[in-house]
Fold:
Amino acid sequence: MHIIETQHKRIPWRWVILLQIMVQVRILALFASGSMTFTMRKFIDSPIIINSVSSLDVLFNLLIAAPCLYYSDRIWTRHGRRLPFVMVSFMVMAVVIMLLPFAGSAVPMAVLVVLWLIFWDVGSTFDVLIMEIIPPEQRGRAAAIGAWMFQAIIILSSIVIAGRFDDVVKSLGFTLPGEMLIYWWGSICLVFCVIFMGLFIRENKPTGPPPVDHGSGIKGAMTNLFAEKSLWPVYLLVFSTVLMQTGLGAIDPLLMTEQWGYSKQDMGTNIFVGGMINLFIVIPLVGLVVDKIDRLKMFTYSVIGTLILQIAYYVFVQFFLPDQRPTIFHMIFFGQCLSMVGQFGGVALQPLIFEYIPRDKMGTAQAGLNFVRSVTRLITLNGIGLWVAYYSKWFLPEGKFDYFSGYIFMILMNIVGCGFLFYFGRQVKRGIIKPLGRTDFHPVEETSSTSQQKS
Amino acid sequence: MKRILTLSVFPLNAIALFIAASLWSGRDLRLRFQGEATDGRIVGMALDREEKNDLLIALDTKLDLLLADGTRIDTLYHNYALTSATEQAPEGGALRTLTGSEVDGSAEATATSFSPELLRVLNDAVKGETEIVRWALLRESRRIEDPRRVVRIEKTETVHGYFGLKKIPLVMELRDGKIALDESGGNAPSPGTVVIRGVFDFTDPDRVKANKGDSLVDYEYLRLGEPFTPEKRNFFLFAEPYTTQFLPIFGFEANGQPIARRSHIGRHGGPTLALQLYGTCMVYYDPANPAEAILMATPGPVNGAPLLWFSRLCEGIFGQWGSGSLILVAGLLFLLTGLIFISLAMWPSKNIQLTHPTNPTENHNSANR
Structure:
């Protein structure tokens, strides 16, 4: 049987391998789209606009991905319920990314980038489709196979693809710019996925009834998310953590290439070496320590550690390095330290959040968390663009940008986030915020023993 | 029949991609593995614009350094190789001619030797763009305890070449190691010069403050004797817009004859990291037709910076083979996937169970597909 289908209790391992190949090929296309920052930079100077366009991704996540996911649960067509979204999305994206190198000015380029972002979110049913094919018992090993393949594509992307953007190769009387090579390669990857899904994947109609249609529109959904007061502390916790995770966004590659004068190949080397250290040292180390420390403590250490490291990196570059320009070694060193501390925080955060979510409100909470995360990220990404633009306008000669000044914004956001976290901690200590996920939870054993006592 | 057609889609795509890869990189592969290998050198740079192309054939660089104690150091370079250097003591004092080993730091350290910091400034300034010279001066400004720190750098680049050419030929003559264009052709190019002067000065804090910390206080670009405003206030190789393509010209000796050829690989907006002007490279050419040649970048010595060396190595390899290898990788992905699907069709797995077998016919159909 060479057609891959959904709704199976057990599937052949060759299906899993094939699906993981397709998942990674899609990620390769995503990596290729990472060069869009440089394409935008060709026509747009302002970091505000570059980060704003990039942050539309977060907006579309709310406006496009969420409804697509919602409706894909509730419809059925002769081609299935997830596939139509994914097929349309991938076909449009393949065309968009193929046309991107031909954009001769800012407007067509921005239109193509926005179309890419919209249709990426239309295709958000892809992950659900894959999960519907791979049954729960086989997902663990599937994830392991995927993780292994992911490392291979990290190597391919960082070493081979990342540095090709500016290349020019002349052959067969044709000039192939690196930008075109990267985007067309991304397009081939998407065509691969379209052929794969169009010819070899089939959805079986699920037997159970579709989820209840709330039918109250976006306004109703939003009201529902925020009507539940017991979830407000959780939203505050997530809001503060997203503030603390503020990154430079799309201007990060510009800091390395434009401000510090490294090539895109150097950038690839940074990602490659950092990725290898992460894989062989940081992740195993975090794995060793993770169960030996209390999660809340671990999260606190991570928050403080991140703040200290960000300040240390800024001070080191700005005041200790004589030319205010770190070497690749410095970048990898600080990057790995931050990554290690960040991983501790990441491991601790999820269980910590769920301690404050009542069990019967997990669905609403998940939707609300996504909303809060997205909106906060939208604000911070645009904030950092504005910060860099105005900081540069005030302190630098015209036409020059100090992307590294974004670190000050990041540090400020981290401090604000820490403030909210501190407030949260105090409210917990005073008993105003309760860990409802823990206190309202009664395990089956407990329930049965209580009923036995009653009887 | 439909089943065979479906199963053949991936392998057919793979074959198409393999053919594309071999067509795209076939010439390079043939020369790399069947051609004659010889040492080469990047002897010039073609700046490929749509209409007006420039061809750099030689480069003179003059560096005038002013130290905090008033000492002046003047150096002259031709094609990045030092030709003369002098040091004048403060307040019009004695003028001393410096040896090459003193300026490049290879001489044994004496009382008059240049400090490592000063040598680094010279090295950075001679090849570097304006940003690198700015960093060098910024670095020096923080060494306030050293009276022999650099406080002012004046860099003048004189570029010799052919400017505004309609087309840059693929193969050129090499006379005394210098590119020469055939002036008898319809193109009738004549050599000219571009002079760029940049002054980086930290001696006047008020001026620097007024300039928002930018040490580049004076900049001049003369193209064929006329003032010109480039895209970026930078030196010749770094002043171009992104659309300009930089294609190295490599020189080598084939059958005892020197020859120069434009490379088929290059970079947008600036010179490549791996193929540096006046750097060495490997050349593979067809002895029967020496104009058929490719160059391969050599990453050069590690020089205490292994990560930068690794970047140069990767840029050299994948700048040359990246496009072909990506097409090949795509082909391999299609082939591998196609083969797994064929294996599934030929040897179906028994490891399959439907979660909710609602319709026995559907299950039966699924198993037989």
About this structure: Helices of chain B lie at 2-34, 100-104, 116-127, 130-141, 205-210, 306-346, 360-368. The first helix of chain B runs from residue 2 to 34. The two ends of chain B are 13 Å apart (CA to CA). Chain B touches chain A through 79 residues (CB under 8 Å).
